[in-house]
Each structure stands twice: as structure tokens, then as C-alpha cells.
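Notebook entry, structure prediction.
Reason for the run: the old model in the group folder had no record of what sequence produced it. Starting over properly, with the input documented here first.
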Amino acid sequence: MIKFFGLTNFLLRYRAVVILCCVHLGFDSYAQQSILPCFHGMIQIDSVRADLAALTAPQMEGRGTGQPGYQRAADFVAARLRAFNLAAVNRNQDEAHSFFHPVPYTRVVPTGGELVLGNRIWKLGADFVPVSRRRQDTITLAPIYRIQCPKESSKNNPLTSIKPASLGFSLLLEDRPSLNSVTDPDACYQDLRKKAIATGVKQMFYSPSRFNELKERWAEEERHRPRIRLVELPPASGPSEPRVGTTAASGLQEYAVSRALFRSIKKHAATVDQIAKPNMGSVIIQNERDSFFAPNVVGMIRGKSRPDEYIILSAHLDHLGLVDGQVHPGADDNGSGSTVLLSVARALALLGSQNIQPDRSIVLVWFSGEENGLLGSRWMASTLADSLGIRSDQVFANINMDMLGRNDGAHGPDEPYLYVVHHHKNQSIQPFTERVNTLCHDLKLDYSYSRADDPERLFMRSDHYAFHQLGIPAFFLFSGLHEDYHKPSDTADKISITRLVRNAGFVLNLAWQLAQRSERLDPVEP
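New structure, fully documented this time:
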């Protein structure tokens, strides 16, 4: 007997369901119709409580990527996977580090900067701040064109009429987007930005309505949370393997500017029907850099009949860490999802010990770098074949878990609800999750964040998004935002252990049903 579950009663229930199905339908019919058993009682409440406590303990220091606390958390998860006897899948690591998928990062701290335009110098942090995640140290300003955000979204791209010089061109957005439109763009701004990327625009400038507030926020983040980014992705191993995060989007540099600098740029800018002047000036930012590795943690349950097809279950392990000396524990974000994933790993390992295996292999991943821009998942999605020996077309689906332990206030305090967040065009995920819920659970599944007009744009804000960009069906489970989001007050005592146990049971059944399912979920073009 394995100490972490009372196995006898479970196996009786499991085998009873299988026998009844086979007697009623015949074995072949059972297999074809995918009428599968539901697992209940597999998630241990004491283990859930202990894992959450460990991941939010003081020595973890909030699990910030690039900080010692994150490595301690990664070591803890890897030790659990080793104890569960999960398979390691990183073929480039030695035995001691076999559950680690190292991700190379660069930490960038700006020490100064200026924008030179004409005969005047404008200062970084006072007159302008970078908005884009990727930065270059020195940029020559391309010819600048001013443009207004279209009143209505259109498939026509007004930028294609511009005749760019060899250096490309820049844009000055004449509208004044709100503060939120800069950090979480509205539809009009986002539409123009997509067209700018498609056209190869080099720089984009705009003056938000609350620039002073934005620059204060920027200064606070740069002072206490150095910007972390990926090193350049390695060359693709083959023509069929797409790379995430290496599109033209990485070349667009975006800046929010003061009204005074806006007026100065406007004087030098041309309209789209004119020819802009070349060699307008430059942007120079002085940065200090250091490089480091922070691993994703990866384990696998090997499939029985289709081991070379994969379900990926994921949760980000990192949080904000130490910010200005203060620990941000990240109990819900995402100690809760990491704990749920550990519970599912434990349950799958228990089943495997009794020779109960899924048809497909199930890969379990705890990501680094999510809080810095979904970086750990981007790296993994871009290096699947190189480091894990998995092609993207072998991945059947991804289920991601992020913030699963709190009530968001939009539902009753004891209501067993869960948000399922998927791309609004995907027509197969909701029927699948509803089917599993009807068969195995009685949750209230909420799809409101999956709407095309979701103002929070949550579908783009967690680690499943990197797999969606590869054309892999992907969705994430979520229990909602709350007042402690990204604050030191996101502590373990506010997490509902009952909710975590319930959600882990649902994830286990979702994963098992996907692993046995004959037809794929519909992919959506990224």
C-alpha cells in the first residue's frame, strides 16, 4: 500500500465503473465511445495543505524569477516529482538536474537615457518611458509619420500607403489613449498596433492622458523590479518548428511621452501622404545587465498506447518575490495552481503504481518567468524539440492553472465555480469541459472571460498562450481576481484548501479524459 492514499476503496470504485461499462456496451464499444471512469477521492487534503505551506514559506521569499527563493521552490517541486517516481524528460540535463528545463534570462536595469531630437535632449523617466518589453540600447529614429487611431476597426491597413526608407518608419499616435490603453490596450489602439507590426514599423510614440502617473509607475517598477527578459531564442531545429516570440512584434519599440515631447515630435512628423525627413534623432538608454538561468520544472507520466502524443498540464511557479525588501508570497498567484498541479502529479503517480496508465503521455510543467511576460512558457514552446524531444504537432492539448484558491466576489462564498478561459473562436473546449463536468463533477463553469470583448484580455495573460501560438488547443482554469492580487497580502491563510482539492480533482479528470480521447480539440489559428 502507498501511504498517500487509501487505495483499496478507490480501486474497487474504478474497476466497478470499467466492468459495468464493458458489460453493458462490450469492450470495443466502450473504447470507441470513450465512456471513462471518473476519479474521486484521489486528492489528499493534508498533502495539498502541506504543499501550499511549503511553496509560500518564508524561505521561498515569494519565488521571484532570478532570486534564491525561486530556485528553492524549483528544488522542492523537483524533489516531489522524484519521490513520485515521475519520468524526467529533459534529455540535456544530468541525473541530478533531470527535472529542470533551464531557461536563460537577462536582467536589465536602466541607469539613464535620453531621446535626441533636433537640437534638444529629452530625459528618460522625465520626458519619456519605454513601454515595450524588448529594448535596444541605441536606436536611430526612423522617419516619423503621425496618424490618428481609426474611428472604427477596419481590415484595411492605412500604413501600407507609406513609402518607407531603408530604415523603415516610426509612428506618432495623435490620439491620447487612457493609462489603461497603454498597459492593456483598448480595441482601437490594439488594432493600430497590430497593423504597425504587420507593416514593419520601428518605433511608436504616444502621449497617454495620465503620463505622469505612468512614469511614476515605471520608475517604481524599474527601481524595485528589474526588467527580466529572455536571451535570443536558438535557431529553429527544422523548418516545421515555429518559434514563439520571434515575430516582427519583437522589433517594435514603443514609448509613452510627455505632452511637450509629443508636440516636438509632431513638428518633425509628416502625414501619411507626405515623405518624412530621415535621420530625425536617436534614443539612447544605458543599461546594466547580468545573465542567469531559472529552470522550468518538468516531469512526465508515460502513456500506454500512444506515448508519443502528449497532454501538457502547466502552472507558473514564480511570483514577484522580494520587492523593495518585502516578500510577496503569491499564495494564490500562483502557489495555488502549483499546488494543484503537484496534487495531480501525485494522483497520476499513484495510478501508475497500480498499472493504471493514460493512453497518451502527460507532461507536467511548472514555469518560471510568467510574471515577467510569460517567458518560461515562451522558451519551452520554442525549444520543445531541442530539449524535450517533442514536436509541437505531437502535443494534443494544454491545460494551464493560474490562481485557483480564492473567491472573486462575483460568486457566492461557497459556490463551487471555476472559470474556463479559452480563445473565443474555439468551439470545442466548452463542450469538452462541460461533458467532463457533467460526467464527473457538479461545478459551475464560467466562460465569461472567454468572450471576444473581455476587457481584462485574460486569455493572453497566462502561460497557455505560448502553446496557443503554436496552434495547440489550450485553455486555462482560474478562480478570479481579488483585492490581494500582486500584493504582499496574497497569503496562504486566505486560500480555501477545499477549493484547491475540488479544483485538483477536476483537473485530474480533464487530463485523463483528454489522454484517452480519440478526436482532437479544435485548434484555432494564432
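Summary: The radius of gyration is 25 Å.
The old model has been moved to the deprecated folder.
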